[in-house]
Amino acid sequence: MYKLLILIKASRPFYWLIQPLIFTVCFLSSGADFNWLSISQLILLSFPLNLVIYGFNDIYDFESDQINPRKKIINGIVLKQENRRLIKKIAYIFIAILLISSIITLNIENIIFMIILLFFIYFYSVPPIRFKERPPLDALANIFIYILPPAFLGYSFGASILDFNYKIYFVALAVAAFFIFSTIIDYTPDKKADDKTFSVIHGKRTAALTSFITTLLIYLLSNFNTPLINYYLLFCLTLYLIIFIKPNEKLANIFFKLIYFGFYLVSFYFLYLNI
Fold it and tell me: How distant, in Å, are the alpha carbons of 6, 68, 133 from that of 88?
């Protein structure tokens, strides 16, 4: 029970629904019907996938996490040495299970994007690539962790990804902008640990401004016809601008949570439209 609790805390339950929501919305929009294969893959994109994402992240962020005041239940825990070995072992098992879930679909698109998803998750945190410390590749890597592969995995059950709505790429860019903004939150512990995140290298104001400009371009060029999305983008723009003016890490943390819950609101709305 103790080990299970460690695994659950390390997997960040707060974030379990991101990829399953993206998967489900795109699965339903493809016209597919649920079966045991699609349901299994959907479930695997929650706790198991998140343990892989945040488990490897915490293993290789060990030093900065020791001095990070945000390392509590929502944002994971400070690992002990024995926890790291346990999490690495289970994470590799989950990687194998995720690959098998894709292979048994006999769907080449599903298999390709599962491999892409796991590649970017692993090398986001793990040397020698460690995208996390290679801005702006860190932001681009998050597109292939949180948006495109989960979307294409879901869509592949009912249609070809070649028929996918191009606006998914604007959504992906919005996530990249949000990720750049999120590096402001851990600026102080990351700088002390010499982790080369976007904010550490370029500064907190530059991170906020980059997020603002990227989101503004999305708002102007994407032509979303759903008012809720446009209101959400304007909401994000306002918060990014405030942090650019006042780059306070605690305030950025509050705004991060507001934007994150806004994402859930928009996603559940689209889920409702497709049911």
Answer: 12, 21, 21
Q: Domain count for the chain, please give it.
A: 2
**Containing structural domain, residue 44:** 1-159
Task: Clarify whether residues 66 and 126 are in a common domain.
Answer: yes
Tokens coding 43 = 């479930």
Tokens matching residue 189: 């512990």
Predicted confidence (pLDDT) per residue in 151-203, tens digit: 999 999 999 988 888 889 999 999 999 999 999 998 988 888 788 889 999 99
Contacts of residue 77, defined as CB under 8 A and 6 or more positions apart, other chains included, come to: 6, 9, 10, 58, 71, 83
218-255: pLDDT as tens digits? 999 998 888 999 999 999 999 999 999 999 999 999 99
Q: By C-alpha distance, which of 109, 98, 146, 151 is closest to 124?
A: 146
Considering the domain architecture, whether residues 178 and 150 belong to the same structural domain is answered as no
Annotate the chain with DSSP letters as a single string: -HHHHHHHHHT-GGGTTHHHHHHHHHHHHTT----HHHHHHHHHTTHHHHHHHHHHHHHHTHHHHHT-TTTTTTT--PPPHHHHHHHHHHHHHHHHHHHHHHHTTT-HHHHHHHHHHHHHHHHHHSTTT-GGGSTTHHHHHHHHHHTHHHHHHHHTTTS-GGGS-TTHHHHHHHHHHHHHHHTTTTHHHHHHTT---HHHHH-HHHHHHHHHHHHHHHHHHS----HHHHHHHHHHHHHHHHHHHS--HHHHHHHHHHHHHHHHHHHHHHHHHH-
Domain boundary among the residues 159, 189, 205 is at 159
